[in-house]
Amino acid sequence: MTEKKFMSETRTIQTSNVLPPDTNHHGTLFGGKLMAYIDNVASIAAIKLARKPVVTASTDSVDFLKPIRVGDAVTLEAFVSYTGTSSMEVFVRVTREKLLTGEQAVAAISFLTFVALGEDGKPAKVPQIVPETEEEIWLNETAENRAAHRKARKMHSQELASFFSPDALKKKNNA
Q1: DSSP annotation string for the chain
Q2: Is residue 175 domain-resident?
Q3: For residue 61, what pLDDT is reported?
Q4: Domain range spanning residue 99?
Q5: What is the pTM of this model?
Q6: What is the CATH number of the domain that holds 57?
Q7: pLDDT single digits (tens) 65-82
């Protein structure tokens, strides 16, 4: 019998103040800083499911929807939304809150894929994820479509890597 865990068991929330050193010359949170936050919170959610070390296999995208400014609070909520044999998709919702007014908005959304590793450093089985809420069920049911896009994107990336490999570039430059 396959081990199962509820999505809620992987839910991870992180909140931070946005301070001047975290921002660019526009006074908004550095995109790279937000991406680091996203990877961190998503990895914790993945480990909560696997209870094994995990590695980031891909970040589908980070869609910046609203600016996050100095003085705002940024909250990241992550949970595993889909599982394969050793891989898992993690959904991250980023919310900004203007602390002086209480106004909140979804500032970014991201999906990441992690792979669990066994003691031998090779992919290891993960429990099957079980959705409960309407949001969780929708994310779980739409995950296979995202996985197909991920697979196609990875194939394209492999083609690009081959095209731009040092050996291929030498051949092109010597031709």
Answers
A1: ---EEEGGGG-EEEEEE--GGGB-TTSBB-HHHHHHHHHHHHHHHHHHHHSS-EEEEEEEEEEE-S--BTTEEEEEEEEEEEE-SSEEEEEEEEEEEETTT--EEEEEEEEEEEEEB-TTSSB---PEEE--SHHHHHHHHTHHHHHHHHHHHHHHHHHHHHHTSHHHHHHHHH-
A2: no
A3: 82
A4: 4-141
A5: 0.90
A6: 3.10.129.10
A7: 999 999 999 999 999 999
